[in-house]
Design goal:
Elements lengths: L1 E2 L16 E4 L2 H11 L18 E4 L5 E7 L5 E5 L19 H12 L3 E6 L6 H11 L4 E10 L11 H18 L4 E8 L8 H7 L4 E4 L6 H9 L3 H9 L2 H10 L4 E2 L1 E7 L6 H15 L4 E5 H6 L9 H20 L3 E5 L5 H11 L3 E8 L3 H7 L4 H6 L21 E3 L6 H16 L3 E2 L3
Parallel strand pairs: 1-5, 2-3, 6-7, 6-9, 7-8, 11-13, 11-14, 12-13, 14-15
Antiparallel strand pairs: 3-4, 4-5, 10-16
Helix pairs in contact: 7-8, 9-15, 11-12
């Protein structure tokens, strides 16, 4: 499959009605972004995507992102439809998350045909890493350095530095390299990277203009690796040194069992009101700031898995909300934060969600009061147009009612509030609920 140029115009959605849609998982979305931004010459086979010449590829929110179209006898071309949904945090900063042709052209303008070294920063660099990076980048034939920071859409496991932290550390190390050699060309670069079946890193970075690639972790000495491997046991060593054996055993036994009270942040609003965008950005923000595990239960994703057997009649909608609330309450019971983002059109369903969650954690109802005409004008997924044409039945706001809540804890109209401000308002409301609230050890 040939990938379209990253700066190609977006195709019209009008010609995709009736074309089969395939929902991509997070890893496939990373690969698709690489292809659409020119880092991959072709789109490799993706898990769950059939070998079909007429497909629309969507994210979990059913937003059509790209279409595979027959391009004569030569094969299939990938055409962009809509921009990717962007998260919050430094890993999404357009200044560092750039297309391959753009970066390659800038390097060519600044250093001509000079050798470009890509240093791959896969974890926060150590002091020894910085010294090694300075050594290897200081070779006389190096004209420019790319600090390549591979980040994915899948969340990091608990206890590891997240994508936002890695992006900050990578940009800082690029700044340190540039400061050590004034006038040198050092560019931080965030590269979308799947956690499973990734493409070849050398070929991808070559598309950005790199002549040579080196993993920073490969520059470490055995002694440095041993010191890093010993870090997780540092606390245990100190406890054993400070306390007699019986006391130390009790302290180590309860270490990590003190569990803070969990929470459910429950978004409601019309399709297109901004629920998924703000919920995802809030999740990124909380994971970056807080050690609690954050789980996003997006309405469209839940429909594809947990509630795939349900329709869109009133009874099915209520059952869908009950299932979301039940799962969210379990997450809160274990000290996590569940962020749910269904439409939740009926007051009875939202009240049920509150009643299920509150025995196990805090419950914050966030109403996105964005007017129908604004939501319909956005129509990223094309559903409103289909509902107006009578092709989609029981569509909330058009052929099915939405009962605006009068008990919301936070009300936001995204017509006048941007994503960053909306996240701040919700986060501050949640922090007021959770401040100093610690559940007893399990």
């Amino acid at each position: 499959m040939t990938a379209a140029d990253g700066d190609a115009g977006l195709a019209d959605l009008a010609d995709i009605d009736g074309v089969r849609r395939v929902v991509l998982d997070d890893d496939a979305l990373d690969v698709l972004e690489l292809a659409l931004t020119g880092a991959l010459a072709t789109l490799p086979p993706l898990a769950g995507v059939p070998d079909d010449h007429s497909l629309v590829l969507t994210d979990a929110e059913n937003t059509p992102l790209a279409r595979l179209v027959q391009d004569g006898p030569s094969g299939v071309t990938l055409r962009a439809l809509r921009p990717f949904a962007r998260g919050s945090g430094p890993q999404w900063d357009p200044a560092v998350r750039r297309s391959a042709p753009e970066v390659r052209a800038e390097l060519r303008r600044r250093v001509g045909d000079g050798r470009v070294l890509a240093l791959i920063v896969e974890e926060p660099p150590t002091q020894a890493d910085l010294r090694a990076m300075l050594d290897v980048s200081g070779q006389s034939d190096i004209a420019a350095v790319l600090c390549a920071i591979p980040v994915g859409r899948r969340p990091h496991p608990p206890g590891h530095v997240g994508w936002a932290g890695l992006a900050r550390a990578g940009r800082a190390i690029a700044g340190s390299l540039a400061a050590a050699r004034p006038g040198s060309v050092v560019e931080p670069l965030v590269v979308p990277w799947p956690s499973s079946a990734p493409p070849g890193i050398d070929d991808v970075l070559a598309a950005f203009g790199a002549s040579t690639t080196i993993r920073v972790s490969d520059l470490r000495s055995p002694e440095e690796n041993e010191r890093m491997a010993a870090l997780p046991r540092a606390f245990e060593r100190e406890v054993l040194a400070l306390y007699p054996p019986a006391s130390a055993a009790e302290i180590l036994r309860v270490e990590g069992t003190a569990q803070r009270r969990g929470a459910v942040v429950f978004f409601t609003g019309l399709s297109g009101s901004g629920k998924s965008t703000i919920a995802r950005a809030l999740g990124d923000d909380l994971e970056d700031r807080d050690s609690r595990r954050v789980t996003l239960l997006d309405g469209d994703e839940v429909r594809q898995h947990l509630s795939a057997d349900l329709g869109f009649d009133a009874a099915s909608r209520e059952m869908n909300i009950e299932r979301i609330a039940y799962v969210a309450a379990l997450i809160a019971a274990h000290g996590g934060v569940a962020i749910a983002a269904p439409i939740a059109p009926f007051a009875t369903g939202r009240q049920l969600a509150r009643s299920l969650a509150q025995p196990h954690g805090e419950f914050l109802l966030v109403y996105l009061s964005t007017p129908l005409e604004v939501c319909e004008a956005r129509d990223r997924k094309g559903w409103y147009a289909q509902a107006r044409a009578g092709l989609v039945g029981d569509f909330t706001g058009i052929s099915s009612p939405y009962e605006a809540p009068d008990d919301a804890d936070v009300v936001i109209d995204t017509t006048s509030t941007d994503v960053a401000d909306a996240v701040r308002v919700v986060r501050e409301a949640l922090e007021r609920r959770l401040d100093g609230d610690v559940a007893p050890p399990v």
